[in-house]
Design brief:
This protein is an alpha/beta fold and 713 residues long. 55% of the residues lie in helices and 16% in strands. The chain has 24 helices and 17 strands. A 5-stranded antiparallel beta sheet has the order 2-1-5-4-3, with helices on both faces. A hairpin with a 5-residue loop joins strand 3 and strand 4. Helix 3 runs antiparallel to helix 4.
């Protein structure tokens, strides 16, 4: 019963309520006309019944008409009213049918059908309304035809079928309307459900969704606009366009939206808005151009905005952190440059003079030994400085890998030749073995030599007896490449597995006793690891405690058919072809004395200058063969002095070789020397052999070769 008394009855009741007065007027008119052929008492009684029924209908339908919800009792009351009033009209038709007049019989049929059709037309919203307003009155009509008097003796076999047909047609129409109503209600339900879901999303969404015209006129704003800006949607609808934008962004944003509409049709912009409380907030909005249903109407703009204050704060913090990191890196670089310079400057004198003293025939006994210890200790200190410098350059990414043709066996042979004397001094054998066909490769032979030097040096250091074997193996690799594997095996103290795990980390050695017994910084293998990885290779080690270790690295390098340049060898001091006149520019007196002591045996004429200004003046007054120029000096530094010399209106000033002789050895510092006009660079501490080699090359340059390139190998 509850399912039949559904809310469709409320819609029917509301519609019926609107026609109560009209139906009363019609009932009075029908009663008056009926009195012309029916007893007045009957027409009066019938009219009074209709008026009472319509009055009853008025009161039981006014709540539904006002849009209020009706309960089951009220709906049942209305159904009874509908049924009684409709059947009361059928009774009036029955009186006409039984009057014995043909015109009254026709009028009866007309009244019956009109009432039933009217009720069914208004009953499309409810199945119960269809029953009470159409089916029950129709059944009563047929019952009257079957059982009421038929004074005219009309042939009912002809009349009843047509009346039934009329009822079926009207009933089918009512059923179709009920079905349409049901479909409509389902569509309304789904629409309400969808609208509810949308409302739930719109009310809880933190992003702001908006629809506007190209002119900025607001069409829709999601409820989240209030939480985002402090303004309600209604307040923004009543304010001019773009009023809550930050003044700086209100200038360019409208133009950017216009450009989007004229161009790609979609753009994401970041800008600031001013909240109702005056706070400035960063937002990111994606604007998208959409067409309307009306093809003649201009397109509209859908925008989705979100608060990005947190992201902007993070970006600011990241920028600040990056700035601090860059400042720290610059400070570290400056500190490294200054420290290496300050350390190399005194080391230059210590290593240089200890070398001179060690070769002096006037020393004997313990004096020679003590000087040798000083020389070796200062060399160890220089190795430490170089290792720290190399590692810092690798960490900063300031090391570049060259790709030149080289013989894969050449770096190993060069290292064996260099380290053979050291191995022999400990009674060790040092051998180089090759496996497979060694074809020329394209790579950085200098970096490979650097790694090999560290491996071989460590192997000799940690091996007391036996020997060191270097194995070079080349195998095929995918593409036009080859896999180069170099192993350095020794018969030394060996390592445990847990020691190997951390062996290639910086400042790491096998254990604390290693540094005490053998020395070292713990940076060498870390430098090797980063160097090999920089070349795209792999590095590792295997070892057995007490039985020796094998250190290896692998590189995959392209094969090449280009000619291989000769591998540079460690050469003895060059013999100068002729006496030279040198200008030595050095502000530290002990360094001037050292260079004079080193070059004294070669009969060179050396003139000194204590700063760049004296060097420029000396160049203007005399002719020199070569200038040895320090960089960091008072009054005028070496870079400024070099530029000033090159600018002198003298041919010899433009062509004279100027060699930097400085503790500034970082790559960018060497580049600055060349940019200033210097021809070569010698790093402090000065190695006598390299100094003589540079003097020999630059005192007699070849016309077909660049001396700097020749010395670089």
């Amino acid at each position: 019963m509850t399912s039949l008394l559904d809310d469709g009855l409320d819609g029917l009741a509301a519609a019926v309520h609107r026609g109560v007065a009209l139906r009363m007027v019609i009932a009075v008119a029908v009663g008056a006309v009926g009195a012309m052929s029916l007893p007045i008492w009957f027409c009066s009684l019938w009219g009074a019944g209709i008026i009472a029924g319509e009055t009853w209908c008025y009161f039981v339908t006014r709540r539904q008409f006002a849009g209020e919800a009706a309960g089951t009792g009220l709906r049942l009351n209305y159904v009874a009213c509908l049924l009684i009033v409709t059947c009361w009209w059928i009774v009036f038709g029955a009186a006409l049918w039984s009057s014995g007049r043909p015109e009254n019989a026709a009028a009866a049929v007309a009244v019956w059908l009109a009432v039933i059709y009217h009720a069914q037309t208004h009953a499309f919203q409810s199945r119960m309304g269809l029953v009470a307003g159409g089916m029950a009155p129709g059944a009563l009509m047929l019952a009257i035809l079957a059982f009421a008097p038929n004074p005219l003796n009309l042939d009912l076999a002809l009349i009843v079928p047509f009346l039934v047909l009329g009822l079926l047609f009207s009933g089918d129409g009512a059923m179709q309307m009920l079905k349409a109503r049901s479909n409509f209600n389902e569509a309304q339900r789904k629409l309400a459900e969808s609208d509810g879901q949308y409302r739930m999303l719109a009310d809880n969404l933190t992003d702001v969704i908006a629809l506007s015209g190209l002119d900025g006129r607001r069409i829709y704003l999601s409820p989240s606009i209030e939480a985002a800006t402090g303004y309600t949607a209604q307040e923004l609808f009543e304010t001019p366009t773009y009023t809550y934008l930050h003044p700086d962004d209100a200038i360019w944003l409208p133009k950017a939206i216009a450009d989007m509409a004229a161009g790609p049709g979609k753009v994401t912009l970041e800008y600031r808005i001013v909240r109702k409380d005056g706070a400035v907030m960063w937002v990111e909005t994606t604007f998208c151009l959409v067409a309307t249903d009306d093809p003649t109407a201009p397109p509209q703009v859908v925008s989705v905005s979100r608060n990005i204050d947190t992201r902007k704060q993070m970006e600011t913090e990241l920028k600040e952190a990056r700035r601090r990191a860059e400042e720290a890196a610059a400070a570290k670089s400056d500190f490294l440059a200054n420290m290496t310079h300050e350390l190399r400057t005194p080391l230059n004198a210590i290593i240089g003079f200890s070398g001179v003293l060690r070769a002096s025939p006037r020393l004997a006994g313990d004096d020679v030994r003590h000087v040798s210890l000083i020389h070796e200790a200062s060399g160890s200190l220089l190795e430490l400085v170089n290792s720290v410098l190399d590692f810092s350059k690798l960490e900063a990414g300031a090391v570049e890998v060259e790709a030149r043709p080289f013989d894969p066996a050449a770096p190993a042979r060069a290292m064996a030749a260099l380290m053979s004397e050291q191995a022999q001094a400990k009674g060790l054998t040092l051998t180089v073995n090759t496996e497979g066909q060694l074809l020329p490769l394209l790579g950085d032979a200098g970096r490979i030599r650097q790694v090999l030097l560290n491996f071989v040096s460590n192997a000799i250091k940690f091996t007391a007896q036996g020997g060191v074997a270097v194995t070079v193996r080349q195998t095929a690799a995918p593409g036009d490449c080859a896999r180069l594997r170099i192993e350095v095996a020794d018969t030394g103290i060996g390592l445990r597995d847990d020691q190997i795990e951390h062996l290639f980390e910086r400042f790491t050695q096998a254990d604390a006793s290693v540094s005490r017994q053998y020395g070292g910084t713990g940076l060498g293998l870390a430098i090797c690891k980063r160097t090999v990885e920089l070349m795209g290779g792999a590095i590792g080690a295997t070892s057995t405690p007490g039985a020796g270790s094998t250190f290896w690295f692998e590189l995959v390098l392209p094969r090449t058919d280009e000619p291989v340049a000769g591998e540079p060898q460690i050469q003895a001091a060059e013999t100068l072809e002729r006496p030279l006149r040198l200008l030595l520019v050095e502000d530290v007196a002990v360094n001037r004395e050292l260079i004079q002591a080193l070059l004294g045996p070669f009969g060179l004429e050396i003139e000194t200058a204590e700063n760049g200004q004296e060097a420029v003046e000396a160049m203007q007054g005399r002719a020199f063969d070569i200038v040895l120029m320090d960089v960091q000096m008072p009054v005028m530094d070496g870079l400024t002095a070099t530029r000033a010399i090159r600018a002198l209106p003298l041919e010899r000033a433009r062509s004279i070789p100027i060699i930097a002789m400085t503790a500034n050895v970082l790559p960018e510092q060497i580049d600055r020397c060349h940019e200033a006009g210097m021809d070569d660079h010698l790093g402090k501490p000065i190695e006598p052999a390299k100094l003589l080699e540079a003097l020999a090359i630059w005192s007699s340059p070849r016309e077909d070769a660049d001396p700097a390139a020749e010395r670089a190998g």
